[in-house]
């Protein structure tokens, strides 16, 4: 029903270890390369952000658990490059380019522009908002992609079937459940929904505490 | 190959070998191999990689968010505009771009403390805070922040008054959240640049508080 990345609420992970303030530091030189290659290869335009996330989530449970953060990135990048035909299995196995591409290269100038411009997720949509701020809603259950079995979704399992209240409206955003599988933007209204901690957890720390999630309209029904 | 390209990403492929297994296991060698292949094919220039590293190692970091917070503390109109619709307000200051296209700023008060997490991956407001610190991407933070935020805050040495409720924002879409921490006591009369120095990265994620003038949290 869910994948290894969907870990919100899980027990057993131990303490969170703070780090010095300021710019986050790269702990190894190859971390820089992993970040740079992933961002640059995204500039080739062969996949979108949701396909990229789904590639990381689709690593085997064993790999996802064993890999450090940037190891996940680099493994998912290698998978995507081969699956989109940008790099061949032979090239990956040999570690060498076989022939040159005729595609326009991703240059420093191009990537600087794409970092500065970003890629908004808002789209025009024919789907009218079904909820307004203050409405009570319930999330669907189980938390699963309804288009593709085992597919990408952004409703965490800890919030499946939970009752909450619409807190913010964000207009229509690209639906990851569709976009991650090349089924189109399928943009629909996006909301921030607030849940009481007691709605989500057996032993909430404090009765006033809350959790919010950003949820698409099709994840929600009136309650 | 075109048939393959057309179907990539359509279905999860849990039963086939993942191509990354063709790479050597050592991560540094994996990165080197991919860099050699992609630059060798002429798909990515070394300058592109240098640009990305320089951007996130040297240029874009939490000083951007601290500037925004200091302005909000100093200018009531700016604060109101920021809380109402942050994206154009921070974009006017040049803080816009990848992973910051849809910004929401949430304000801490004596009644409510805000804290940001991404339980499903590691979504983070890059144009305002740079790339996330290791702990933000850790399984422990992702797993625990939503269920036991007060125990996570204790890991950071932060204890909230019992009268303060915690609201944890799980960033599940492309909306990115920045916490506007409470202005510390004793900071009256400080200029914007001095105020910005009190604003830590963690205080804008909600795992810390702004520093008190003269040191200490």
Give structural notes:
The complex is a heterodimer of chains A (223) and B (217). In chain A, helix 1 packs parallel to helix 4. With 223 residues, chain A is an alpha+beta fold. A 5-stranded antiparallel beta sheet of chain A has the order 4-3-2-1-5. Chain A contains 8 helices and 5 strands; from the N terminus they run H-H-H-H-H-H-E-E-H-E-H-E-E. Chain A folds into 2 domains: 89 residues, Cyclin A, domain 1 (Orthogonal Bundle); 87 residues, SH3 type barrels. Chain A is globular and about 60 Å long. Chain B has 2 domains: 32 residues, no CATH class; 145 residues, Alpha-Beta Complex (Nitrile Hydratase, Chain A). Chain B is an alpha/beta fold and 217 residues long. Chain B starts with a helix and ends in a 12-residue tail after the last helix. The longest helix of chain B has 14 residues. Helices cover 43% and strands 11% of the residues of chain B. In chain B, helix 4 packs across helix 5 and helix 5 packs across helix 6. Chain B is globular, with a radius of gyration of 21 Å. Chain B contains 12 helices and 4 strands, in the order H-H-H-H-H-H-E-E-H-H-H-H-E-E-H-H. A two-stranded parallel sheet of chain B has the order 1-4. Chain B has a two-stranded parallel ribbon with strand order 2-3. The N terminus of chain B is likely disordered. At the A-B interface, helix 1, helix 2, helix 4, helix 5 and helix 6 of A face helix 1, helix 2, helix 3, helix 8 and helix 9 of B.
